[in-house]
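Amino Acid Chain and Its Fold in Token Form
===========================================
Purpose: to set a sequence beside its fold so the mapping can be learned.
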Amino acid sequence: MNLTPKQLRILQLIRDSRVTRGYSPTMQELADELGISKVTVFEHVEALIKKGALKREANKARSLSICDSTIVPDETQPLSFPLVGKIAAGNPIEKYEQSDSLSLEEIFGPRVGQKVGSYALCVDGDSMKDEGILDGDYVIVERRDTARNGERVVALLPNGETTLKTFFKEADGRIRLQPANPDFEPIIVKDCRVQGVVIGVLRRY
């Protein structure tokens, strides 16, 4: 997809805002961040919609979102994932077979046939510590809006907060977001928005 530098930055800002705040920025917020006029931002957004990179819900504020088939270019760099904010918990450390080399592209890159990107979040808190995820770790998140039972998800709660927990859909239809720390209670909600699924974790010593 042929994007201008401004259009790429708009995609990044919309992605980051939706992950960390649960909604997209306004045209004015985008204009202020980019240092351009609101009219120019509108033109770029309309161009991105025509290119199939963005979608928008009619008559709804802050409804811009990245199309499922769109990969933001910075999500494809094998050794550098975009850090878009903090999240409240984490994901267990994966075990790897011994090999001559360790390729981050092979571990965290898109699988065959996959058309989604990945981003990074810094873990803030210890609600998942019993799965080996500590405060300050980095989790690599695959940008998805659905999850299976047992997957670790970035979840947007009805109150607007985001958290990282293990996803379970109960028999009664409610969602249980399970921590891995006895000091924390499970979060039970009627519904939540999945922002992504954790595919790995990184720790710096």
Residues 5-21 form the longest helix (17 residues). Residues 73-202 form a domain with the Umud Fragment, subunit A fold (CATH 2.10.109.10). The chain has two domains: 5-66, 73-202. The longest strand covers residues 193-202.
